């Protein structure tokens, strides 16, 4: 059966001589793996461009009620990025987001709400020029309730980090968390680089404890860019 849905590309891996397996978070069916034939050929350049990480797609897919590979009947871009692929800082943020999303988003999440939050966040990242340096921090904080994680206040964060890691958070880090937690993406937050870096590691450790995400290869790139 064919169904229409929207999707967010998380990543792809090479498969065989010319194909790829692409992991896409669909609005209707959650996280799915698709076999894309002939994507790595001269004639398939358009295909490989379509399935770049974080691309937002309109899809017609073959519906399966299992975790096995399936196929895409039709695909086109749902949103054309204007700055995200070209701005080095935004591209670094996007690299980080695509990696951590691939590690933390599982099949059992409520796909519609999570998909819509991620999609709207990526569109804002592409369109805004305000507070880009804090975007990834706000994203991690705002995403947490969709995943059933308790990051509702600085007191809760401090208590959990002390319990999990025997780490006592200092006041500037907790103040920065509170400022970001209550801030929309388009609102600028004044946080210095050292506090931003420390809070980033705290948030990643929080996710790592609950979701076992392991190491993040994109993190050094993000830190080198502007932290």
From TrEMBL:
Alphabetically sorted, this entry's keywords are: DNA damage, DNA recombination, DNA repair
Question: What is the species listed in this Swiss-Prot or TrEMBL entry?
Answer: Marinigracilibium pacificum
* UniProt xrefs under SUPFAM superfamilies: Nucleic acid-binding proteins (SSF50249)
A Gene Ontology biological process in which this protein takes part is: double-strand break repair
**Recorded GO CC terms:** bacterial nucleoid
The protein's matches in InterPro entries, at most eight in alphabetical order, are given as: DNA_rep/recomb_RecO_N, NA-bd_OB-fold, RecO
Note the superkingdom of the native organism: Bacteria
What name appears for this protein in its UniProt entry? DNA repair protein RecO
Q: Which family does it belong to?
A: Belongs to the RecO family.
Gene name linked to the record: recO
Q: Its biological function?
A: Involved in DNA repair and RecF pathway recombination.
Keyword DNA damage in the entry? The reply is yes
Domain DNA replication/recombination mediator RecO N-terminal, first and last residues per copy: 1-77
């Amino acid at each position: 059966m064919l169904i229409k849905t929207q999707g967010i590309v998380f990543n792809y891996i090479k498969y065989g001589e010319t194909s790829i397996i692409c992991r896409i978070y669909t609005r209707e069916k959650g996280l799915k793996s698709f076999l894309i034939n002939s994507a790595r050929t001269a004639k398939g350049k358009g295909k490989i461009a379509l399935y770049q990480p974080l691309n937002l797609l309109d899809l017609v897919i073959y519906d399966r009620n299992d975790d096995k590979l399936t196929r895409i009947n039709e695909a086109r871009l749902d949103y054309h990025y204007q700055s995200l692929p070209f701005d080095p800082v935004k591209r670094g943020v996007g690299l980080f987001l695509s990696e951590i999303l691939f590690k933390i988003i599982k099949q059992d999440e409520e796909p519609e709400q999570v998909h819509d939050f991620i999609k709207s966040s990526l569109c804002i990242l592409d369109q805004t020029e305000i507070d880009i340096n804090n975007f990834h921090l706000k994203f991690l904080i705002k995403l947490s309730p969709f995943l059933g994680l308790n990051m509702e206040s600085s007191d809760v964060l401090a208590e959990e980090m002390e319990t999990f890691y025997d780490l006592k958070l200092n006041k500037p880090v907790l103040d920065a968390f509170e400022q970001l937690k209550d801030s929309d993406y388009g609102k600028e937050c004044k946080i210095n680089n050292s506090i931003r870096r420390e809070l980033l590691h705290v948030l990643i450790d929080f996710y790592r404890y609950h979701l076992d995400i392991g190491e993040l290869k994109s993190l050094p790139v993000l830190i080198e860019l502007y932290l």
